[in-house]
Specification:
The complex is a heterodimer. Chain A is mainly α. In chain A, 75% of the residues lie in helices and 0% in strands. The longest helix of chain A is centred in the middle third of the chain and has 38 residues. Chain B is of the alpha+beta class. The chains are: A mainly alpha, B alpha+beta. Chain A: This is ABC transporter permease.
Chain lengths: 344, 539
Amino acid sequence: MTTGLGATMVRAGRRLLSSLPALFGVLVFTFLLMRVLPGDPAVFFASGPNAGKEEIELIRKQMGLDKSVPEQLVFYLSDIGHGNLGRSMMTGQPVLKDLRERLPASLELTFTALLIALIAAVPLGVIAALRPGSAVDHGVRLFCALGVCVPTFVSGLLLIYVFYYLLGLAPDPTGRIDVFTSLPPQRTGFLSIDFLLAGDVEGWWAACKQLILPAVSMALFVIAPLARITRASMLVSLGSDFVRTARSVGLSWRKVVVTYALRNAILPVITIAGIVFSTMLGANVLVEKVFSWPGVASYALDALLSSDYAPVQGFVLLMASLFVLVNLVVDICYGIADPRVSIE
Amino acid sequence: MRFVSLRLATCVLATSAMLLIATAPSQAQTRAETLRYVTGASVNTLDPNIPGSTRESFALSMSTYDRLVSFGRKQLNGKWVFDLDTITGELAESYEVSSDGLKLTFHLRKDAKFQDGSPVTAEDVKWSLDRCVTAPILGKAQLLTGSLTSADQFKVVDPLTIEVTLPKPDKLALPNLATVYPMIINSKVAKEHATADDPWATAWLKEHTAGSGAYVVESFKPGEQVIIKRNEDWNRGSPNKPAFFKRVIVQSVPEPATRANLVERGDADLVLDLQASDVQSLEAKGKLKVISTPQYNAITFVSMNNQIPPFDNVNVRRAIAYALPYDDMFKAALFGRGSPLFGATWADGKPANGIYPFQQPVKLDLDKAREYLKAAGLPEGFSTTFSFNVGQASTAEPMAALVKESLGKIGIKVDIQKLPDAQMSTQINEKKLPFYTEGIVAWLPSTDYFYRNFYTGNQRWNYSSINNPDLAAIAQEARFEPDKAKYEEAGRKLNAMHFDLMPQIMLWQPNQDAVMAPSIEGYTYEFHRQVDYRDVSRK
């Protein structure tokens, strides 16, 4: 087991190293892309009622846009080397600080949504695979189709309308916590964990209530790919020789389905879950907007609309790094789910 | 094992229930004393002078800082709006204007204190005004419009008296001191945080406040929310009484539908930027108070670049002016919520008065439009683009479709261009857009100010790029005209020229729809078009 784990770690380390050039490429590419986009951020931000040429020049200088593009790139890379991602014009804060404050919000939401999606999707997929072609299978298919068809912001608005506006069950959809609740001391940045660490059960419940609706509307959207892949992979697994053997020797239903079939069917689900996670993190911008969730995706979108270079570049770099990390985690999960993968 | 966990769960539940009951009454009380204001925008700096600061930042600074003077308020069609002509003291107890209009003397309040307890002195006022005209900040361009350009103009007479001298008797000097930028900063504190590179402490003041205003910043999360609490010593509104609300929460809620839900459910107290359709339905339900004020210092235009063919031909511009389906546009874009600037009848063919903006005698008349096109030598029409920015899509998109349809009828083929905001402002600045819709706002809406800033010079705000020396000269002269009748005459002349040259087409002044809980009182439409938190109270 130790050698297995060790091998996984070595493999993960090697993957990490080989992804560095890709990260660098993303860095330069985003930088250039932002400069190529039409629209001068200095003009946009100088929009006070009297902002004239002088103000525009001032902002241009502040943003470092008065220099040539290659010069800007060199400055930018050296800043990154010093751990400085620049300053956002929109929020007036260093990008690193903004991202550090907002990333936990996005992660908390995405993790919760993925957890809800997995808890719903895997059993749904298994049930559908056990009775292919039955009414249950069709029911699951319909549910998945609906989940994919309804865009997240529509399901989000619908959930708000029903649970907040009509029933009054959910708290107002304005961010991570009710404005009147005092925040726990920040440790992890994940409010649900911080409240527990502070021993504040009421606060924890308040944070969870805020989290449920956005997480569910995001989960609805990703249940479909997860359930479909579970079903397909379970079908293969259930039809394979070892399951037939297990059945023939009279093992319990539970043991056959969960231990043998599902364990072997879970690999593709992990892969998809990894991909889904990365996409969710970047693509949950609509949910973040609808629920006023102070996450990184809505931050990046606002920055993009106003041609605020630094936050967009910082966001893309963050996403690229996260993608690398998620792939690593998926790799490690592979090793645990199927030790054969570790042997190269 | 199961029994234990069950007991634990019951215990937790019971405790939280008790906590809930215990905190409920005190929470209810603070809720009534708290104003929760939701907005689609956000505060990005505590110093409104920082280039790139948002309108919400302007509004916040009105409450965290005091100015020497402030605007009074008046009723306009039963609604409270700011009054440019009544200027009352804020930090100044009283002020005098010399008979030649060249000297303003301000006597400071003796009891005024900064939030750290130190008294407000003439030195602080001088430092703050010096900063405004010297530092590379937004105040510079604003104060320029009131002939305030140099630190030499501000003189400390004694610790409680400051004198401002003007090169010309500029009517806008005094009102300028009531705008957002010339706020009075605690110079001792600010100087402590000044550096050699940054002698005016702009970096520090962006994240901190050092003022004497009605509210103290409690927490500031850029892009999310700002919470301010009352400064109990502040008495600039009414004697011996601080502002009404103990706390104000300014919260960013990007989705307009969510903002509408929040205020309808009573979770938010006040919101300004709802979609016109939501305002209409909320007003129809009648549960909330809706105060719609025409933004009388703002105008929405259809602009044509007077330097780019075919719009350099006055007859083409006139043709467009008679081919726009004004009524349909007004309904589709704003649900009729605003003041129209079209469809006037000028009995003698002359402007009714010298006030800008004014209603022009234009209406949809396709035959007339065709005649003008023929006169321009383009009877077959032409092709052009019509641009608007994404940020205004909710009003501009339906409008653009109607423009395209109507102009199609007289042979003008229009391509609709929807541009990201930064791109749109860049192209306007570079004078590259032939035909587009945009809006303007002036903090100090006087006729000459509008014409000087929006109709002269090769600069960004001259949307139509009109270059007419006569118009520029009249507007420039009017600026320093002390005689009211002559000023009015100049205004009439300018308005007549506007209609004759038709550099751009004024459409309307959109309403500011303030939607609030029925208990909120005192809302006033301010020059910065945001809420002044000091105005409002709860019944």
